[in-house]
């Protein structure tokens, strides 16, 4: 689980040094992170080397600038690796992760459950023993489940799964001619399974 982030994107050398110092001081002797990986000593050594390289690059010397940039990149990689360690060692506890000095990662917004399908219509086809069920669904709907019964929905009959489809229409075959059937539909989405639609009835052709 991503609880904290390194937040190093587009940070310059000065900002990276300050972030590193905060992480180093926050994690030193922190009992929540008894075995940092990479070791804090490696991060401290790289940060101190970057601090020494910064003034040498201030006059624009290409070699000095290249060295500063290389050290900044290497420090960034160490901090990213340390952030991964913190996320792993925190065992899902955001408060523990935040004691590391890294900033909180954005909490994912839960995906809402999709509402039931609507405008369900059941019609006999020109073939005997078939019914066409069509309906509309909301955004986020994936697989649609069509259920069937011969009982009155108001009396709580047993519903059986008749078909699975990714489309908004489906032909149900193998039905008894001239029999009345009720159909209802729900959808499977990222958040789970929706409620059922309002049932629709049709009489199958002979």
Describe this protein's structure.
The protein has 206 residues and is α+β, with helices and mostly antiparallel strands. The chain is built from 4 helices and 10 strands, in the order βααααβββββββββ. The chain has helices at residues 13-27, 40-57, 62-89, 94-98; strands at residues 4-5, 103-104, 118-124, 131-136, 143-149, 160-165, 169-172, 180-189, 192-193, 200-203. The strands form 3 sheets. Strands 5, 6, 8, 9 and 10 form a 5-stranded antiparallel beta sheet that branches. A 3-stranded antiparallel beta sheet has the order 3-4-7, with no helix packed on it. The protein starts with a strand and ends with a strand. The mean pLDDT is 94.
Amino-to-carboxy terminus distance? 58 Å
Q: How many helices in DSSP terms? A: 4
Average pLDDT, all residues: 94
Quick one: overall form? elongated
Quaternary state of the chains: single chain
The helix-strand sequence is: EHHHHEEEEEEEEE
Using the CA coordinates, give the radius of gyration. Answer: 31 Å
Classify the helix fraction into a percent range. 25-40%
Sketch the major β-sheet: 5 strands, antiparallel
SS-derived structural category: alpha+beta
% residues in beta strands:
15-25%
Unreliable stretches covering 5 or more consecutive residues: none
Total number of beta strands? 10
Topology:
Elements: E1 4-5, H1 13-27, H2 40-57, H3 62-89, H4 94-98, E2 103-104, E3 118-124, E4 131-136, E5 143-149, E6 160-165, E7 169-172, E8 180-189, E9 192-193, E10 200-203
Antiparallel strand pairs: 1-2, 3-4, 4-7, 5-6, 5-8, 8-9, 8-10
């Amino acid at each position: 689980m991503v609880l904290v982030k390194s937040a190093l994107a587009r940070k310059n050398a000065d900002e990276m040094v300050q972030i590193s110092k905060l992480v180093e001081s926050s994690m030193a002797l922190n009992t929540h992170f008894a075995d940092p990986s990479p070791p804090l000593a490696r991060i401290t050594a790289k940060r101190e080397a970057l601090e020494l390289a910064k003034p040498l690059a201030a006059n624009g010397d290409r070699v000095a600038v290249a060295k500063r940039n290389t050290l900044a990149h290497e420090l960034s990689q160490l901090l990213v690796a340390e952030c991964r360690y913190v996320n792993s060692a925190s065992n899902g506890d955001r408060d523990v992760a935040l004691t590391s000095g890294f900033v909180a990662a954005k909490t994912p917004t839960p995906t809402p459950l999709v509402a039931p399908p609507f405008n369900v219509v059941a019609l006999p086809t020109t073939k005997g023993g078939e019914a066409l069920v069509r309906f509309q669904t909301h955004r986020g709907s994936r697989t649609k489940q069509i259920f069937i019964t011969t009982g009155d929905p108001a009396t709580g009959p047993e519903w059986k799964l008749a078909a699975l489809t990714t489309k908004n229409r489906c032909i149900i075959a193998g039905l008894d001619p001239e029999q009345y059937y009720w159909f209802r539909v729900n959808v499977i989405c990222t958040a789970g399974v929706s409620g059922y639609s309002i049932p629709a009835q049709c009489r199958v052709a002979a």
